[in-house]
Write a structure and sequence with these properties.
Length: 111
Amino acid sequence: RAHYYRGIALSREMNHDGAVQEFRTAAAERFTFRHFLLLSHARVYQAALAGALADRAGAARQKGGLHAALADYNEVIDISTSGAANLDPKFVQAVVYERDITHLEIQQRNR
């Protein structure tokens, strides 16, 4: 659980890369120690990872890293569609919208 809490702290500090790394580690540990952690913990870890990915995508997009942002948005959508986390439908809808806008920005750059 320490990685999960470190991820929260890093997210609050706007350290998106660090938060994503900590949430990924927390999720991986859940699978390693699946006999000791509840399934609900895994869903919480995946939801936190989705939030951190969306934050990192937004930051990357603002800096012009459109391809990195698109990859992170797609990963959030994958988490949502896999059922690994119970994400708010409005959050997912916003991520899909941001992903689509990012995709259009990439297409405009390539013209």
